[in-house]
Write a structure and sequence with these properties.
heterodimer; A: alpha+beta; Beta-Lactamase; Immunoglobulin-like; 3 domains; 9-stranded mixed β-sheet; 8 helices; 42% strand; B: 813 residues; mainly alpha; 3-stranded antiparallel β-sheet; 3 strands; disordered C terminus; AP2_Mu_N (chain A); AP_mu_sigma_su (chain A); protein transport (chain A); coated pit (chain A)
Chain lengths: 432, 813
């Protein structure tokens, strides 16, 4: 369905052009440059000119553009563009103009493999790396021997894992990373609070292990409880989490999850994202912010911002940064803080307050005063929200816990598992 | 050069008899030369400044054939590294758009190699330039055919993949045999590549694909043991089905369906999408079967890839039509909601596609996502296109329970900096007010708060919105007129100004200083935008009818200047009509001008059910993003009469919005609309030249019929037809109907016209079903009229002074 894929740099020069179908000419690249790259007012990521549709995604200093003449699956095209970016990142560390220029031959090879006649094929970076290599270091003989194995794997049911992995020490690391999104209204009401969590796993396990993974998922645990205590009074256990929705890496058997909510999978080798989840129930907000901002006349604004850490005093947060917006016509800014450092950053129109270590249950305050210059036209200040960034280790906002990770393998080896938790700020915004 | 050892001066040479000697000029030192003296000195070359910037400056400059010649030598080099490097450079040149086709035979020569990377590069070159050298491609065929027998499956697949991409007839003769072999290869990777290759062959030569029995082979591959092969076979078949004339290549039946469902769990994400897309075409036999399929598809909603989720949603939405059990439908809707919300956490572009689709799903199933309105609240740093769509969905989800929340959110948006978004937010408040009766009071209060911010564009937009609220709830919020009037000075946009003038005219009896206000506006009457002029005209007449005693002189002056000093035909025509009405029968004028306005309603589902169903079939595709049927933006497909009717009638009103939003090139759209018009007219009247109605020259003045004739050609602003309706609504049956027809036609004809919104009831209420009929009206109406009209036009050419025209027109009445 994708008729052509182009990569442009910021100036609109074509770095990569790959036509998959004959319904387009290469000159179509110029149309996009004129209509989008040199156009300052682009209001949509999809643009249709005549019967040709352009989908573009911006990444670093590149435009990744897919072109089609069909009624293409728009979501697929965008997901694919992002996949191309991911593959690029996994191959070159970062995908920018220099990387593309330095590796254009390899990129053509990859594009040849991931799309055939405009239909996405295999886009798993790990599998691709087996037969498209950065340096053709492998001897041809090795390729010959391995290639049939590769192709079986590239098309097989477990395309993400080679069967012959061996480790002396079998280990698995699980990282639970949660991003808290918060939107607090001017009155201090929670407009939206939800947690987007990721469970990242690094598996160094031999053979083809079958893993089972357990969370304190309320739906599952309640069902178990009902099974065990038939007829008993059903009470809500407090230590469970209600997961609104979750998505899994393709290795997880979705059918099984749907029927009995167990998460079982054969992990790819190395690092991968096992699942993503979202909850909006019972969220422990790690930080409370009380802003008091008074506009005194037309020339002065007073700020008083209080931040309180809401988690246990045994824990602490790292890299806490608050960005407190100031009006565009701020002339002088003075601020005092009870911890950390605060300074005015004119480029961002904000006071930036950094606290490198923030003990649980403690409370800090910023007082500031902004003097304003007179402006000719009175345009109300839009008061962008205060945004906050932080990381809290060994704390999950949602209360999610990993209950177990079981590994079953034919050879029955012992494996060591590690779990870490971290909560960081997603879109943590406080209006004032 | 030598220097004196005692005083360091330069020694000179002189002859002393037979031999030469060095001497010093200042002291008596002498050195006789008795043997040859030699001194060697190497001189450093002076460094030349490179004015053009050194070697690097030469890296990407244009070259004459010099480089090609150099490449040519390298391509023929005996060293492999050198050849490979040369091929890479050829590809680099190809990328930047330089012509390297002349090297064709030399590049192709390098195809015969064991180096996979090199082979791929040569293939890439071949695909690009085969067309320009069709005769030479035959050189490569042999290698291709040999490669499809290679022991390495990667090379086999590569060869068959590339062969399919070379669109030269000659190669087709050699393609079929290897392709057949590859379709039966025991390596799945080769089979899946060959499956796609059949689609490539089909695209080039359908006959040949059928003759060779590839269709059958491909259908067999659907039951392959490898899921990815199944997925690719399905993909290829689906594409061939779409472009085939007989439509019998891939009819999804029970057997296919079961095989696809079996493969669904195991294939790659992209394969899942292909299978889900084809599943959507299957027609389930009964409700039970549909339920079963839905159950198998539901787990896909948990996939990390947003497009898989949307494809699954599409299948479920389509099958829901066949499911009879209400409970099961409820369950499905419940299961669909969380994944849809999760899509909002993906990349902004995917969010945008998802939001457009959620918009559709909401129109079909309004009970979904009822409690999730909060997730659609805009984040400060969302891209504008995402914000816009979120706003739309917020309005769709708005009800009595959450209106409070939504209003405070909208108010927040109204203080942002993006002007366009702020305006949309203000409009949204108005739509909420019109939708939910109980909330109108709160909405009006919020709007008043916004007016108090005194931010220019917010105030203007709020006034436009309040006008609509007045229309919906007449006689409820008159109290706020005073506040509105305080903002007279800040209005500079025609629409806002027109709105306020309309309010003043409509409520003239309750505004003490209405005549002062109108008079104030009239000072600049001649300079105003036509839209404002029209409103002023109407408002003045309303004022006169309500307060005849004080304003007689005013109305006279306005009509006078409108008829004599204004060039705009609309304004002038309307002034004449009013004048005539007022001078012949003031009571009739009152009945016409001050008649009850039809109430306005917010169109909740702006898409007609038929189109909506078609769009649901296209969830996640471009059509669903544009909210237009695929035929509307895909070229090369002739408009069928059916499609034209649909396209023209159903979404002409949408056209402008979507066009504006998504930058479909306006010319193409207008062209399409015109096409549609012409076809539509043909359909209704055969080949009679009814199109002349459309292009008839504007007639500057005349009786009823000529006013109507001109209207479609120049229905310029949204208020135009509305206000014409103001005075036409009480006219006799036939002409009223024709006016309505005109309104409808205006709507169909003017895709570029400003969003007609609430101010023009006839346009927004006319829908697909009756516009054809109205055309009929028009046709029959215009037929007998034509001679009269011509006569009239001649008259007008003779009449230079409008006042004379007035007199002459009397006998026409």
């Amino acid at each position: 369905m994708i008729s052509a894929l182009f990569i442009y740099n910021q100036k609109g020069e074509v770095l990569i052009s790959r036509l998959y179908r004959q319904d387009l000419k290469r000159s179509i690249a110029d149309v996009f440059r004129i209509q989008v790259i040199s156009n300052t007012d682009v209001r949509s990521p999809i643009i249709t000119l005549g019967s040709t549709s352009f989908f573009h995604v911006r990444h670093e200093n590149l435009y990744i553009v897919a072109i089609t003449k069909w009624n293409a699956n728009a979501a697929l095209v965008f997901e694919f563009c992002y996949r191309v970016i991911n593959i690029g990142r996994s191959y070159f560390g970062k995908l920018d103009e220099d990387a593309v220029k330095a590796n254009f031959v390899l990129i053509y090879e990859l594009l040849d493999e991931v799309l055939d006649f405009g239909y996405p094929q295999n886009s798993e970076a790990d599998t691709l790396k087996m037969y498209i290599t950065t340096e053709s270091v492998k001897s041809e003989r090795a390729i010959m021997e391995e290639s049939s194995k590769i192709t079986i794997q590239a098309t097989g049911a477990t395309s993400w894992r080679r069967s012959d992995v061996r480790y002396r020490k079998n280990e698995a690391f699980v990282d639970v990373v949660e991003s808290v999104n918060l939107l607090l209204s001017t009155q201090g009401n929670v407009l939206r609070a939800d947690v987007a969590g990721q469970i990242l796993m690094r598996a160094y396990l031999s053979g083809t292990p079958e893993c089972k993974f357990g969370l304190n998922d309320r739906l599952l645990l309640e069902k178990d409880a009902v099974n065990r205590s038939t007829g008993g009074t059903q009470k809500r256990s407090p230590n469970t989490v209600e997961i609104d929705d979750c998505q899994f890496h393709q290795c997880v058997k979705l059918g099984k999850f749907d029927s009995d909510r167990t998460i079982s999978f054969i992990p790819p080798d190395g690092e991968f994202e096992l699942m993503r989840y979202r909850t909006s129930d019972n969220i422990n907000l790690p930080f409370k912010v009380h802003p008091v901002v008074n506009e005194i006349g037309k020339s002065k604004i007073e700020y008083k911002i209080i931040v309180k850490a809401n988690f246990s005093s045994k824990l602490y947060a790292n890299n806490v940064v608050l960005s407190i917006p100031t009006p565009l016509n701020a002339a002088g800014v003075t601020c005092m803080v009870s911890a950390g450092k605060a300074k005015y950053v004119p480029a961002e129109n904000a006071m930036v307050w950094k606290i490198s270590r923030f003990q649980g249950q403690s409370e800090f305050m910023l007082t500031g005063e902004v003097t304003l210059t007179a402006m000719t036209h009175k345009k109300a200040w839009s008061r962008p929200p205060i945004s906050m960034d932080f990381q809290v280790l060994m704390f999950t906002s949602s209360g999610l816990l990993v209950r177990f990770l079981k590994v079953f393998e034919k050879s029955n080896y012992k494996s060591v598992k590690w779990v870490r938790y971290m909560t960081k700020a997603g879109n943590y915004q406080i209006r004032f | 050069m030598y220097f004196c050892p005692t005083c360091s001066n330069l020694l000179l040479v002189q002859t002393d008899g037979a031999q030469q000697q060095f001497y010093c000029q200042t002291c008596p030192y002498i050195y006789p030369v008795i043997k040859t003296i030699v001194q060697r000195k190497t001189l450093d070359r002076k460094q030349v400044d490179d004015v053009l910037g050194g070697d690097e400056a030469w890296a990407n400059v244009d070259q004459t054939e010099g480089e090609n010649a150099e490449l040519l030598t390298d391509l023929n080099s005996e060293y492999r590294d050198r050849r490979k490097d040369a091929v890479k450079r050829v590809i680099a040149n190809m990328t930047v758009g330089k012509d390297v086709s002349s090297l064709f035979p030399h590049v192709v020569k390098n195809m015969q190699t064991e180096d996979l990377e090199m082979k791929k590069l040569v293939y890439l070159y071949l695909m690009n330039y085969a067309k320009s050298n069709p005769d030479l491609v035959i050189l490569a065929v042999n290698t291709f055919v040999k490669d499809t027998d290679h022991v390495n499956p990667l090379i086999r697949a590569l060869a068959i993949r590339t062969m399919g991409c070379i669109r030269v007839d000659k190669i087709l003769d050699h393609l079929c045999e290897p392709l057949r072999k590859c379709l039966q290869d025991d390596n799945p990777y080769v089979r899946k590549t060959a499956a796609i290759c059949v689609a490539k062959l089909w695209d080039l030569d359908q006959e040949r694909a059928i003759e060779n029995g590839f269709i059958k082979e491909l259908q067999d591959l659907v039951s392959d043991s490898n899921p990815m092969v199944v997925a690719n076979a399905v993909t290829a078949l689906a594409e061939m089905q779409e472009s085939s004339s007989t439509k019998d290549i891939f009819v999804v039946n029970v057997a296919f369906m079961n095989k696809m469902l079996a493969a669904l769990n195991e294939c790659t994400e992209w394969g899942q999408i292909a299978i889900l897309t084809s599943l959507a075409d299957y027609k389930p036999l009964d409700s039970k079967e549909a339920e079963n399929i839905c159950e198998r598809v539901v787990p896909r909603l948990q996939h990390a890839n947003g497009s898989v989720v949307l494809s699954a949603v599409r299948v479920i939405m389509i099958y829901m039509r066949h499911i009879k059990s209400e409970e099961f439908i409820k369950l499905l809707i419940k299961k669909m909601s969380p994944p849809l919300v999760t899509l909002l956490a993906s990349a902004p572009e995917v969010q945008y596609v998802s939001l457009r689709n959620i918009n559709l799903i909401l129109q079909k199933r309004p009970d979904i996502l009822q409690n999730d309105v909060r997730v659609f609240f805009c984040k400060y740093n969302d891209p504008p296109y995402v914000k816009r769509e979120k706003l739309e969905i917020m309005i769709k989800l708005c009800n009595e329970r959450n209106i409070e929340q939504i209003l405070s959110e909208l108010k927040e948006y109204a203080s942002e900096v993006d002007v366009d978004f702020v305006r949309k937010a203000v409009r949204a408040i108005g739509r909420c007010a019109i939708m939910i009766d109980e909330a109108s009071e709160r909405c009006v209060n919020v709007l008043l708060d916004l007016i108090n911010t005194k931010v220019n564009y917010v105030v203007q937009e709020a006034i436009i919105v309040i006008k609509d609220i007045f229309r919906k709830y007449p006689k409820r919020y008159e109290g706020i007129i005073e506040i509105l009037c305080q903002n007279l000075d800040s209005l500079d946009e025609p629409e806002a100004k027109g709105s306020l003038i309309w309010i003043v005219g409509e409520y003239a009896e309750q505004i003490n200083n209405a005549e002062e206000l109108i008079e104030g506006f009239l000072e600049t009457f001649l300079e105003e935008n036509p839209q404002v002029q029209l409103q002023l005209l109407t408002a003045t007449v309303k004022l006169f009818l309500k307060k005849p005693s004080q304003t007689q002189e005013l109305v006279h002056r306005v009509l006078q200047s409108a008829t004599t000093e204004i060039d705009n035909a609309d304004t002038r025509d309307r002034a004449y009509v009013y004048w005539r009405l007022l001078s012949t029968d003031p009571r009739a004028a009152k009945a016409v001008v001050l008649s009850e306005k039809p109430p306005i309603a917010v169109e909740m589902s702006s898409i007609s059910p038929g189109l909506l169903d078609e769009l649901i079939n296209n969830i996640s595709t471009l059509a669903s993003v544009y909210h237009k049927p695929p035929t509307a933006f895909m070229g090369n497909k002739a408009f069928s009469a059916d499609a034209v009717k649909k396209a023209a009638a159903e979404d002409a009103r949408d056209e402008e919005q979507i066009m504006g939003d998504d930058m479909i090139s306006p010319t193409a759209a207008v062209g399409a609309a015109k096409n549609a018009m012409a076809d539509l007219l043909d359909l209704d009247f055969g080949n009679e030249s009814t199109t002349t109605n459309v292009s008839s020259p504007p007639v500057s003045l005349g009786n009823n019929s000529s006013v109507m004739q001109t209207q479609p050609a120049q229905a310029s602003g949204p208020n135009y037809s509305a206000d014409l309706f103001d005075f036409s609504s009480d006219m006799s049956g036939s002409s009223g109907g024709a006016f309505g027809g005109m309104g409808g036609m205006g709507g169909v004809m003017q895709p570029q016209q400003q969003s007609t919104n609430m101010s023009s009831p006839p346009v927004s209420t006319s829908n697909a079903s009756n516009s054809g009929g109205l055309f009929g009206d028009l046709g029959s109406f215009s037929q007998p009229m034509q001679p009269q009209q011509q006569q009239q036009q001649q008259q007008q050419q003779q009449q230079q002074k409008p006042s004379g025209a007035m007199n002459d027109l009397l006998y026409l009445f």
